[in-house]
């Protein structure tokens, strides 16, 4: 007879190690995040680097086959790399399944003519260089939202503040969510709080933050956090799958992002990278299944936010000057 009673969450190897006299210290309740998503749940899922309708179809098919729940699908090459027809196809496919679609905005420093990003210091990074780059990001945002996109990915603080002001002013829909890219992710609680105040509805932190760093952030901000459970090589290639339950406990409300290490970069995507993009899209979903299986084995797979939920709740914002 199967025991249907709720299981207490456990840490990896806990019982076996305890039997060998290697038991871990008790978890401190003070380390746990007190926050959750509006409407309930402490974690959502995201499949990143879904670069067009064909990759999206692969992700949706594989998610159905492996029973991987998806709250958000994001793209990294940018709105400008998609035709109106492609964006509309992606909007319709995700809306049919009640999944949030997030597209990257505009020009970024790593692709323009500025030389500083090619120096050893990587000065300027992915940020929007000059007025015209900010304008390009806003142009992307208006175009994408007019086609039905409800989430925009941002890699510049000024662009983030501009897009937040644009939604308050009604230039883009008020329920548009703004996601801060891992390419500029904050590494301390003060910076995290600033991104929230600038308009970030979810903030991607680097995957090398410690568990204590997550607890520090949660003491100052309830804004949803995005984190690669497995990071692409250009973001460090970190694989933190065995920590997933503790990442949720410390970092909730948390988007579990299923990236892929040991895979070539695919931005900006084009048909010349088709086979790689489709195969890596499929594998990202499988990585999600592996992480969810770990959560289930550890008795920590409860508290997933309802599928279809996307809004961040009430967050703190800087006042907009009149």
Descriptive overview:
With 322 residues, this protein is of the alpha/beta class. 35% of the residues lie in helices and 11% in strands. It has nine helices and eight strands. The chain has an eight-stranded parallel barrel with strand order 1-2-3-4-5-6-7-8, surrounded by six helices. Helix 6 links the parallel strand 5 (177-180) and strand 6 (202-204). The chain is globular.
State the helical fraction. 25-40%
Strand ordering within the main sheet: 1-2-3-4-5-6-7-8
The stretches of 5 or more residues where confidence is low (pLDDT under 50) are 1-6
- Biggest sheet character: 8 strands, parallel, barrel
How much strand?
Answer: 5-15%
Measured distance between first and last alpha carbons? 66 Å
Order of helices and strands: HEHEHEHEHEHEHEHEH
What's the quick description here?
The protein is of the alpha/beta class.
Spell out the key features of this protein.
8 strands, 9 helices, 11% strand, 322 residues, disordered N terminus, alpha/beta, eight-stranded parallel barrel
Q: What's the SSE blueprint?
A:
Blueprint: H1 14-19, E1 43-47, H2 53-66, E2 72-74, H3 84-96, E3 100-104, H4 130-146, E4 151-154, H5 157-168, E5 177-180, H6 189-198, E6 202-204, H7 211-218, E7 225-230, H8 244-251, E8 254-258, H9 274-297
Parallel strand pairs: 1-2, 1-8, 2-3, 3-4, 4-5, 5-6, 6-7, 7-8
